[in-house]
Amino acid sequence: MSMINREVSDFFVHAYQNGEFKTVTRDDILGGWSVFFFYPADFTFVCPTELSDLQDKYEDFKAAGCEVYSISTDTHFVHKAWHDTSEKIGKITFPMLADPNHELCEDFEVMIESDGMAERGSFVINPEGRIVSYEVSAGNVGRNADELFRKLQACQFVAEHGDEVCPAKWQPGGATLRPSLDLVGRL
User: Fold this and answer.
1) pLDDT at 184
2) Cα 58–10–2 angle (5° rounding)?
3) 68, exposed or middle or buried, with CB in 10 Å at 0-12, 13-18, 19+?
4) Is the Cβ–Cβ distance between 41 and 75 less than 8 Å?
């Protein structure tokens, strides 16, 4: 079943960000755009490349009014230890959410029960707390922050211009389409 337009359930999790422990709840994501970026585990191989790539694009996400949350089944203590010992992870400034009880992983349907870890899932959540875009990849395939950012921008454009849609490879300022009967079979 599709998760598009599904409302994010209430949650309360611990996080590590900028040298501090904090809590994050559903209320924190309402009113702004969010990206939930699930990954299997800290101290692994592909994960630091993805989180580092996401950090490189983080200021663009923030400028677009979007907070990025990375999420694994590790605790916030493990996130801190990884942040303190890895050069790549040490540069991360976005919140690293801890989901050791699998609350978020199960709600977003990315839990690998047999491994106790999350799939690589990327979710764009609108200011109303609804999922408007998502993608789940195999554990051995890393994601691209530039493409995730492009999807965020497209979702934001469509939310603002409800009568227009974004074609493949759309970029801000690019041509959009207005669905109509005369476009059927012409593109």
Assistant:
1) 59
2) 75
3) buried
4) no
